[in-house]
Amino acid sequence: MKLGPKYKIARRLGAPIFEKTQSPKYALSLARKERTVKRPRGRSEFGISLMEKQKARFTYGVMERQFRKYVDKALRSATPTQKLFSLLEKRLDNVLYRGGLFSSRAQARQAASHGHLLLNGRRVTVPSIEVKTGDVISIRTGSKDSILFSLAGERVKAHTLPVWLETDPENLEVRIIGEPVYDPAGEHFDLGVVVEFYNR
Question: How far is CA 133 from CA 26, 164, 177, 185, in A?
Answer without folding.
Answer: 36, 9, 5, 24
